[in-house]
Automatic annotation (TrEMBL):
Enzyme class, first EC level, given as a word: lyase
Listed HAMAP family: OMPdecase_type2 (MF_01215)
Protein family: Belongs to the OMP decarboxylase family. Type 2 subfamily.
GO biological processes: 'de novo' pyrimidine nucleobase biosynthetic process; 'de novo' UMP biosynthetic process
Active site: K100
Domain (Orotidine 5'-phosphate decarboxylase): residue spans on this chain: 22-264
Matches recorded under InterPro entries: Aldolase_TIM (IPR013785), OMPdecase_AS (IPR018089), OMPdecase_type-2 (IPR011995), OMPdeCOase_dom (IPR001754), RibuloseP-bd_barrel (IPR011060)
Catalytic activity annotation: orotidine 5'-phosphate + H(+) = UMP + CO2
Natural source organism: Polynucleobacter antarcticus
Name by which UniProt lists this protein: Orotidine 5'-phosphate decarboxylase
Keyword Membrane (UniProt): no
Length: 281
């Protein structure tokens, strides 16, 4: 295990305890859905995300800005500014850059520099399809979190992730979970993505990975069931820990009016409380 202080995993342990929340608010600023006041404004994307973050910061265990929403709008500078703002204002809340990168080692080195040095994220999502040498460059950044796609929340995830890949008939997503937990995670930096839309698979993954943190998108707009998700992903005797359960659109676009921040807070509060209730069952 990595013993350097304030690692992503340690940040998570502290924030689960101090905030009493497993909610991750996803920052996916869709230009078509931004409230009118931000449309066409030079730093409208940054300002929208900042206001939602300020309205929900006491309710979350992490924030997860999604890279594509910024890059498609030529708003990488606003993403940099947003992560800097979040880290300065809420240093106890880990920021996950969701960019789902995956490439050969020499290129992955630059994706890792992008995530951890340019953007200053605490963790990044990565695609394991190209194997360990495509993940290794991220692990060289001691203490940073590397969140590997395992069983994704989308329906098409089954196309490949369910293929049986071992003589014993193990599906690919469980093979990824095993590799990640038993071979790749020598420094304790790895977490896995499993979708809230597939609670049975969350339980299978949890059984393999022990106490490894899970990023679980798919509640809210994708319809994942909160009770089933929390029950499947819980760590025995450690209720309220082990999961970053993401909701983006249901919180960000709870209202398209001038009350968007208040409405986002209301949905975030309901979601955090539903997650807490489920954990206490
Ligand atoms: O890695 C992710 O965050 C991710 C993995 C996955 O399997 N499914 C998934 O929806 N996501 C991301 O989680 C967010 C879900 O957004 P909502 O469906 O609006 O809550 C989006 O930013 C997705 O890109």
């Amino acid at each position: 295990m990595n013993l350097s202080s304030n690692t992503f995993t340690q940040q998570l342990q502290s924030v689960w305890a101090s905030q009493g929340s497993m909610l991750c608010v996803g920052l996916d600023p869709d230009p078509k859905r931004l409230p009118a006041v931000f449309q066409g404004k030079p730093e409208g994307i940054f300002e929208f995300c900042r206001e939602v973050a300020d309205a929900t910061a006491d309710l979350v265990c992490s924030f997860k800005p999604q890279f594509a929403y910024f890059a498609s709008q030529r708003a990488e500078a606003q993403l940099e500014k947003l992560i800097r703002y979040l880290k300065n204002t809420y240093p106890h809340i880990p920021v996950i850059l969701d960019s789902k990168r995956g490439d050969i080692g020499s290129t992955a080195e630059h994706y890792a520099l992008e995530a951890f040095e340019r953007y200053g994220a605490d963790a990044v999502t990565v695609n394991p399809y190209m194997g360990f040498d495509s993940i290794e460059p991220y692990l060289k950044f001691a203490g940073k979190g590397v969140i590997v796609l395992c069983r994704t929340s989308n329906p098409g995830g089954s196309d490949l992730q369910f293929l049986k890949v071992t003589p014993s008939g193990e599906p690919l997503y469980l093979h990824v979970a095993k590799l990640a937990a038993k071979e790749w995670n020598t420094s304790g930096q790895i977490s896995l993505v499993v979708g809230a839309t597939f609670p049975e698979e969350i339980a299978q993954v949890r059984a393999i990975v022990g106490e490894m943190p899970l990023l679980i998108p798919g509640i809210g707009a994708q319809g994942g069931d909160i009770d089933a998700t929390v029950s499947a992903g819980s760590i025995p005797k450690k209720a309220g820990t082990g999961m970053m359960i993401n909701s983006s659109r249901a919180i960000l676009y709870a209202s398209s009016g001038s009350d968007f921040a208040e409405a986002a807070r209301k949905v975030a509060l309901q979601t955090r409380d539903a997650l807490r209730l489920a954990a206490d069952k």
